[in-house]
TrEMBL record:
Annotated protein name in UniProt: PHP domain-containing protein
Signal sequence bounds: none
SUPFAM superfamilies assigned to the protein according to its UniProt record, in alphabetical order: PHP domain-like
PANTHER family assigned: EXONUCLEASE, POLYMERASE_HISTIDINOL PHOSPHATASE N-TERMINAL DOMAIN-CONTAINING PROTEIN
Single GO molecular function: 5'-3' DNA exonuclease activity
Higher taxonomy: Bacteria, Pseudomonadati, Pseudomonadota, Gammaproteobacteria, Cellvibrionales
Gene3D superfamilies xrefs: 1.10.150.650, Metal-dependent hydrolases
Native source species: Zhongshania marina
Highest taxon above the source species: Bacteria
Length: 279
């Protein structure tokens, strides 16, 4: 079985429209797909009337939050996108992203980069402005020679454009997900570059506030990373998830993960898997 429970569309910072994402997933043989845009369910909503064929699609979201001063991402899988509380919190989150974008723009303009907010807003085309939009603007304006350079110099972790203080707490976003009937899954646990002790402390707190899974496979992890995350999954009695974290077509990453990659962990997708889907 091929699954992918971590994907993005143009509703947030992805490069494909929701419809294009579904078409590509079908071409890649994906059987169970979650659309998990950043702080929005608009991408999933756009798929309401399309022909999904044999592809099963579940509603998802990727929420930003903070834990002990670290910017953390939590996936909400199997959510009710019409949940009133979730909708209210997402509106607040969108406002927070708007304020964050203004702060990033002000910081960049103090470095001599003019028109950053307007330029990024035009590229965002009505959705919440993200750091990739600023990177695209800096590239298009000739301030940097690549997207990677924009992040390395100005927008990446610890740089002037790394603004995260306004995100809600880990406990809060887990509560939002659970209020919408979803499952809270810690996204890419190794991306936060925490020590083993600190990562275990974070996962313990995540479990305590209602977290139920971790992303054991994100993209194309090494064997050692997979084994480490499987052990954490076992130690904390989490369910395991797998996703490509797909944003746009590339030569090094494609949609879909073999379900066997998380064995022997309990798969989170067992909650939604249709019985007729082949294992």
């Amino acid at each position: 079985m091929i699954v992918d429970l971590h994907t993005h569309t143009t509703a947030s910072d992805g490069g494909l429209s929701p419809q294009e994402l579904v078409s590509r997933a079908q071409q890649c043989g994906v059987q169970l797909l979650a659309v998990t845009d950043h702080d929005t369910v608009d991408g999933f909503r756009a798929l309401a009337d399309i022909d999904k064929g044999e592809l099963e699609i579940i509603a998802g979201i990727e929420l930003s939050c903070t834990w002990s001063g670290v910017n953390i991402h939590v996936l909400g899988l199997g959510i009710d996108v019409s949940c009133p509380r979730l909708q209210l919190e997402l509106a607040d989150q969108r406002n927070a992203r708007g304020e964050r974008a203004r702060i990033i723009a002000e910081r960049l303009e103090k470095l001599g980069f003019e028109g950053c907010y307007e330029g990024a807003a035009n590229l965002a085309e009505g959705r919440a402005i993200g750091r990739p939009d600023f990177a695209r603007y800096l590239l298009g304006a000739g301030y940097v020679d690549s997207m990677a350079a924009a992040f390395d110099k100005y927008l990446g972790a610890g740089k002037v454009g790394d603004v995260k203080a306004m995100w809600p707490s880990l406990e809060s976003v887990v509560a939002w997900i659970k209020s919408a009937g979803g499952v809270a899954v810690m996204a890419h646990p190794l991306h936060y570059k925490l020590t083993n002790a600190k990562l275990r402390r974070m996962l313990a707190e995540f479990k305590e506030v209602g977290g139920e899974g971790i992303e054991v496979c994100n993209g194309r992890p090494s064997a050692s990373d997979l084994n480490y995350l499987k052990q954490l999954c076992k130690d904390f009695e989490f369910e395991a998830s797998a996703g490509s974290d797909f944003h746009q077509p590339s030569n090094w990453l494609e949609l879909g993960c073999d379900a066997k990659v998380i064995e022997p962990c309990q798969p989170v997708w067992a909650r939604w898997q249709r019985t007729e889907l082949p294992a």
